[in-house]
Sequence to fold (481 residues):
Amino acid sequence: MTPQASTPAFAFQSPSGRDVAAAFDGGLITTEGGALLLLEVERATGVLAQLAGCFTDHRDPDLIEHTAAQLVAQRVYGLALGYEDLNDHDDLRGDPLLATLVGKEDVLGQGRLRGRDRGKPLAGKSTLNRLELTPEGATAAARYKKVVADGPAIERLFVDAFVRAHDSPPEQIVLDLDATDDPVHGQQEGRFFHGYYRCHCYLPLYIFCGEHLLCAKLRTAEHGAFAGCLAELQRVVAQIRQAWPQVRILVRGDADFCQEELMAWCEQQEGIDYLLGLAQNSRLLAALTYEMELAHIRYLACGVPCRVFADLSYRTLKSWSRARRVVAKAEFLPGGPNPRFVVTSLPAEGPRGRPARAAYEEDYCSRGETENRIKEQKLDLAAGRTSCTRLRANQLRLWLASAAYLLLCGLRRLGLAGTPLAPAQCGTIRAKLLKVGAWVRVVARRVCVSLCSACPYREVFARAYARLRRAATAVLTPLRL
Fold:
């Protein structure tokens, strides 16, 4: 399709004095030209294909224009590209490049059955909502909502993707547990006022291993952050151990997860340790008196923050079944004392030994990276867009956002290693590499995409493309993330 001057021009005046004329006559132009890289990520990982396999479509295939796999792909690609709402897809329906990514043969939509749909190859919001609003027990007898999601299968998908990301079993992995608030602003099922966050919200649980997402569980907020955590951890660990029976696992979390049930379970398992934050109390502070005084003296002497570490053996008065090793940090800052405590099953010496300073500074403090991963989920991929009425639908929205994270994470890991965007977060990758203007032409059975010549990251794009092509070629069987 060639550009045609078919609409009146808009006249502008530039600061240089030149006249500027504009018109909507550029032809098929998309702002998502860089999204072609996501197509290569999917070829290398198979994330969307596996996710689509978690849905059972009871619709009559002779009466539909959008398969379940295409609906899943359209929704996830939309989230990866920053379109968080179903309403956005009514505006995206005519994008030929997105239709190409989804797998539409008629990328211009000229063969649609209804006249009102011609020129719009993709599904609108009323069709896409079948993914989220279909109840668990729906069958072919249902009137409209017949695309049923298999929740347990979707949960297994994230761990499968993590395992496939490794060419060989690692010696040790670290599983980070964390919870966050997901504010709700309507009458959603399961809404509850949380005193700490001071709002009605959900309290989703995340489990990460580095940048790999293993679990995204939507929970109601009437219980604490630990509610249901042990069951999810056991499920994830069991699936990992099926693939890697000998891998050592370190479970890490803040004080919300320092519970007897979790610690006792880890101690009963072979090759599983824990490193958890421990809330301070009068007994712990009293045991750290000498170290705090020493840190204060050093601070007064040198004028800079000082730390002193101590190893303690500690047991609560009632809740713990045994005494455990506690690493204590006595720190004095310009604002005053700053003591911190962590409890761990790691010994101070031996093959698994970690001295107090290393256990705190190197092992525990690095869990802060999990906060960045959660921020990517919430701020860049709309994981907090849980505005459906039903809890099940909101859980599915969280999983779809998590699948979009897997795509962008795969692009970052497989395509952007060694480039300036290697450490970039999902939102930065989208803005600099995916949001590229492009002119789309459809000729015979070929889609030609002319990317913007002025793109400042064209070299990064080329390097990412080459790396992804090699990854896709090397791992077609079996799939690798």
